[in-house]
Amino acid sequence: MAEIEIKNIAKSFGDYQALHNINMTIQDQEFMVLLGASGCGKSTLLRIIAGLETATSGEVWIGGRRIDHLSPKDRGIAMVFQNYAVFPHLTVFENIGFGLRMQKLPNAEVERRVYRTAELMHIEQLLKRYSGELSGGQRQRVAVARALAMEPDVILMDEPLSNLDALLRMEMRAELKGVLAESKTTAIYVTHDQVEAMSMADRISVMHQGRIAQNASPVEVYRNPSEKFVAGFIGNPPMNFLPAVVASTGHWSVAGCEFAGPDAQATTIDFAIRPEDVSPSEAGISAVVRVVEPLGAHLLVTCDVDGHLFRAVLDSDLAIRAGDTITLAPQLDRIRWFDQTTTQAIC
Amino acid sequence: MAATHQTRASGRFVYVSGVVLLCAWVLVPLYFLLINTLSSPEAVNAFPKSFIPEFDLGSLTFFANFSGMLSALKNSIFVAAITMVLSITLGAPAGYALSRFEFRGKETFRFLILLTRAFPLPLLALPLAVMFIRTGIDDTIFGLALIHTTLALPFAVLITFSLFSGIPMELEEAAWTLGCTRLTAFTKVVLPLVLPGITASAIFAFVISWNEVFAAAVLTIENRTLTAFLLQNLDTSPLHLKFAGGFILVVPALVFIFAVRKYLFAMWGIANR
Amino acid sequence: MNNRTLPYILILPVTIFLGVFFLYPFVLVAQQAFTTGAGFTLDNFTKVTSHWKFSTSFKNTLLLAAAVVPVQLALALLMATMVSNMKKGRDLVLYVWTIPLGISDLAAGIIWLAIFEQSGFLNSMMHGLGFIDRPTNLISYQSPALVFVAIALAEIWRATAIMLVILVAGIGLIPKEYYEAAEVFGAGPWKRFTRITLPLLRPSLSTALVLRVILAFEVFAVVQALGGTLYPVLMGETYKYQFELLNGGAAAAIALIILGISIAATLVILRVLRVPKGASI
User: Fold this and answer.
1) Which tens digits make up the pLDDT trace of A268-326?
2) Nearest neighbour of C11 by CB, restricted to B33, B109, B116
3) Is the separation of the CB atoms in B122 and C220 below 8 Å?
4) Which of A72, A83, A103 sits opposite B177 (nearest CB)?
5) What is the CATH code for C53-272?
6) CATH assignment of B69-270?
7) Tens of pLDDT along B86-112?
């Protein structure tokens, strides 16, 4: 059982508070993604779980054992680093088998595991090479194989795909997800790329300025973001926000249109809708088109709504040009509302 | 475009001949030393000198047989070897600490290292001579090696600092997650990668000690090193002895510098900061 | 991870060693210079500076440094620039040019002795070319200028490589793009050298100069080999006082004077060649 519990973890570097009171539970065999922009604390949290950093306060439990005072080698974890950290002076075979040799496993077992993981990562033909002769993608596979060979309770990955080119990244994403699902290991994966997060995660923890903004499944994070930051971070292009003024109880006026919304105490709140959840219609929000980007599968239209920036993802067959005025109707069940002061979602 | 081609060609000619001239400037005097070393003692003192060596081993044999010479040679080797070992053993941990850790006093420590390099170190031989007399290591190989280590330490620290800084911390961290303690991660991952560089700086320390003159002359009487021996006998020794001695001084250094030439620029260049 | 104490443990051996074998003797030298067994006194300094040989050796040391260092700087700059533009043969040429780094100053003195001494190669060459009939004693008290030249040449030969290595490393740090940009904006090779290379080389120039000047003030074995008593220098006087005249106090006094001029020169160089904040590469 490799359930992970993070209790009240806080970390400060001098005066700078990197992590504020983090609490999280990760189920056994779950694939958890820590998603956030640079500096949000996700790598710091991962390193604290790994034992490469010490938390200022709080506890880390793995499989019912408290491990935050243990050195990395005693925690039952294996890690894949952003720059792969493949040992240059050892062959691929020796790299993958490194941890196994440290555990003093018998030769037969070492060989068995190395060959198995190498096959899994499609690098069995590279076993005799050195890392200097390998491409970035191949080194990445060695790093993953090395971690998997340890058969750890938990596998930690710190932006492992960020140094690969876009096409390779896409391929590796699918491959990694398959390999990890099969190995039945609990995984924590750090990334700033929300596409990676959405595609691979069982659950996503969106992090912002040292706190967890939302911890939910990818669909939930996409459909029901818990705060404005998450709404704006997930989705490309990001969610649109417009100010809404109360018209009557439960009804709000947004850019000249009226929509049914929540019963809120404030007089103005934020109206939010995703660019792909609007479509041209007779009645709706009036928008002045500024830029049209034909992206092949659809049109990305950047507009001006009452002086606010508004994006729409529309059918590529539509004949829209810069300067046109169009009317956009939002899909009603996809509208979200946020409090302007607390930035929290209003249900 | 003939004119520009001409100027370019003549420019190249000047450049190449400049390079050749400067190489000759370095090599010709060494060649002269070689001639003298490989000549019989008579030829060394004769006039005019021929520009081709006789390949006579007379001078070298005289050198080897000269009383005290071989033991002086032996002493030089021992002193240099001890210096080499000491400076790396003391310097490498400090270089590692500087590259991996932030700690209070780091700047002061770096300043101390810089100060040691900037100071005319041979001058320290004077009070150290007194200190050594009192502690009984005066006129010993070990005593001189201690002074030479002081001379070589700043280089050892700064060079190992740059070597370790070139190894990403990630490699050590990866080793920690794979079952290594701090020490085993160092020996299994970092050491194999810096070994060539450390060897180079060890050789450099050897050469520094081998070539040092002032402290050796001041501190050793019975157990003279080669440099001290030659210096003290400058007035009295015959020419062919001087030249043979000079040759022996030069050859190991030439070989060593060739061996470490790859690291020379990394060492001196980084030792800038 | 005992991350707090580990760095201190690692630097402890070096610190203790340098404390005992550098800081402590340094204090002792200072002490000895200022005492004659009867308490604090400037007697050693007055005795040493009033000796007729002092002003000569002082002047000689400074003169030699002033003659040799600028020449070496120019030469090293030339060689460094030449080497930076080289592709083929660069390694070999660099090795040859840095050979003198491994050569002891005593050996260098002996090498140039082979050239300048009475039956040496210079005489042989001049005889061969028909300029002279008999070998002339070049480095004797009759021709002090020649003695100076011989020593200067030996020093230039020996120590240029020290500056060369520092400058080559420094030039290597200058990104090629700067030169390309300058060329696009119309700067010729000389302009590029004076406007790009030299200013960006300031930190290296200052290091090279400081190192070389300090070493120049310590010049000893080369002079002994070539001139002996013909060209007294400060370090040689220190040696004599300590070893032959057995006057530790006087030797310490001169040692401090050498230290003094070294520090003064260092400060001047650092000041003149300092780089304004943010103006480095």
Assistant:
1) 899 999 999 999 998 899 999 999 999 989 999 999 998 999 999 999 888 889 999 99
2) B109
3) yes
4) A72
5) 1.10.3720.10
6) 1.10.3720.10
7) 999 999 999 999 989 888 888 888 878
